[in-house]
Amino acid sequence: MIVELRQYTLHPGARETLIELFEREFVTGQERVGITVGGRFRDLDDPDRFVWLRAFPSMAERRRALEAFYGGPVWQAHRDAANATMVDSDDVLLLRGPGFTPPAAAREVLATVCHPADATAFDAYAARHLGPAHALHRTEHAENDFPRLPVRTGEDVRVWFGPAESAAWPVQQLRLAPI
After folding, report:
1. CATH number of 2-178
2. What share of the chain is helix, strand, coil (3-state, %, to 5)?
3. Domain spans, the chain
């Protein structure tokens, strides 16, 4: 699967407004065009951050689905309200992996973004320490064929969900509350 890990920086106090709009309009609106909307989260360490994932079967399907959604009636009707909540929506990692939706009872999820200097060594570490429950994702290096929505480039990252042993790799950990 092609997965986007999207981290939005919002105007102070706007997170609940975006979440309400997102849950009411954008989840089903995206699913109608073939996008799998995964986990949606409040960042527990930043009250002005909304984090979410969406997935596509392939890069070609990603482009088709994004064109359908962003050119369609749901986005057109609600984009101004959504954009008014956001300072930045361009912190996006394009990944390949299984996607992730937290268990229904989860109150907190740990997401780790790792920038391994030696991808082969990291992959050996991951094989020993990160099982399927961690939903390991790797950078998708394909060109972003929907440039209207920027993604971070020039990085090789690994992203996983759930606890793991501390590794000797530069990481960013996100403490997330499922919506």
Report:
1. 3.30.70.100
2. 30, 30, 40
3. 2-178
Q: Rounded to the nearest 5 degrees, what angle is found at the Cα of 88, between the Cα atoms of 83 and 91?
A: 125
pTM for the complete prediction?
A: 0.94
- For residue 119, the SS3 value is helix
Taking residues 47-69, report their average pLDDT: 98
If you average pLDDT over residues 147-171, what whole number do you get? Answer: 85
3-state SS, residue 40:
strand
- Judge whether 93 and 73 are in contact, CB under 8 Å: no
Give the span between the Cα atoms of 151 and 125, in whole angstroms. Answer: 27
**CA 165 to mean position of chain CA atoms:** 22
**Alpha-carbon distance 78 to 16, whole Å?**
15
Range in 30-39, 93-102, 138-147, 164-173 with the lowest mean pLDDT: 164-173
Residue 149: how many CA atoms within 13 Å on its side-chain side? 20
By DSSP bridging, strand 36-43 and strand 49-56 are antiparallel
Give the C-alpha separation, 68 to 32, whole Å: 9
Provide the residue count of the chain: 179
Are 26 and 74 in contact by the 8 Å Cβ rule? The answer is: yes
